[in-house]
Amino acid sequence: MKNEKKSDLGGYLSDFISCLQNERNASEHTIAAYTASCIEFAQRVRSSDASFNDWQSVDREQAKSFISALYEAGNSKRSIARKISALRSFFRFLNRTGAVQINPFAALPPLKADKPLPKIMSINQIDTLIQAVISTWADAIASKRVRSEVGAEFSCARDKAIIEVIYSGGLRISEAININYGDIDLSSGVVKVRGKGKKERLAALGRPAVNALWEYLDLRSSLGLGGRDRASALFLNQSGTRLSARSFQRDLKNYLLTAGLPPDLTPHKLRHSFATHLLDAGADLRSVQELLGHENLSTTQIYTHVSAERLRKVYTESHPLARRKKS
Predict the structure, then answer these.
(1) How far is CA 187 from CA 61, 178, 209, 211, in A?
(2) Kind and range of the H or E run holding 15
(3) Is 196 part of the annotated catalytic residue set?
(4) 323 is known as an active-site residue
(5) Does the predicted TM-score (pTM) go above 0.70?
(6) Each residue's pLDDT tens digit, 102-115
(7) Which residue among 2, 5, 196, 323 is the active-site one?
(8) Facing residues of 233 across strands?
(9) pLDDT digits (tens, 9 = 90+) for 139-167
(10) CA-based radius of gyration for the chain
(11) Which one of the listed residues 88, 172, 242, 277 is annotated catalytic?
């Protein structure tokens, strides 16, 4: 085993950097991040400067102390996970070269990075999106960029209905596309949904969704598309076969462009919005969990954080005391 000590800046760290450069072909950004993490460890835990080189004496308790220090310093879980990964890699190198006997970071449980809060759409944005569907197809008809005016009206009514159904019931795009004709009950305002693991649940259809579906079904019938077979697809393309999720998502990008809305909005943002708006209006978490089809309540709880953030933002922007500067 190597017991000789290197005293120059970097020491074993310098060897590690050379390994990253020559053997792993790591980027300059990666090398800088790994180096900074190792130096930060020495500074926080060992109260040493960058010339620290006594890595053999580092133990698991000091590794845990480093993590605690990062938390206290306000580092995010994602940032902490990156630093632990860098140090784990460094000590793996030291162990392989015989500089240390154990890797104090190897036995630490992995950290789960913070999940970003889901983005949602406001009610006004959803209304704007639906209006964009109408104007997109109206412009296509006016400029004669469609084969059939009735076909364009059909696509317009269908996509409006899909948006309304997703937002009204909190559906995933796959769930909406896979609805069959026999799954909807417009008189009762409910739809049977097949979620993950083929688990079925009932979702609500509000009045706008019901009206949009009636309009779509009338046009579908007038074109002779589909039938009233309960097992047949609800949402069809103009060829009469089940519409694909990819096709709708492609059209959605055009609607977002027309509406001047952020291009990263997706059908899933409508589902996020459904859950957040329900909680904002006072719905209980268990009911929202059931409506979303979540197996675990913890999955639904992310939306309570979104609601809290929204309330905090409204308070900060609206309450006079929230903006008062300290004297």
Answers:
(1) 65, 21, 12, 11
(2) helix 12-22
(3) yes
(4) no
(5) no
(6) 899 987 876 765 66
(7) 196
(8) 180
(9) 999 999 988 999 999 999 999 999 999 99
(10) 28
(11) 172
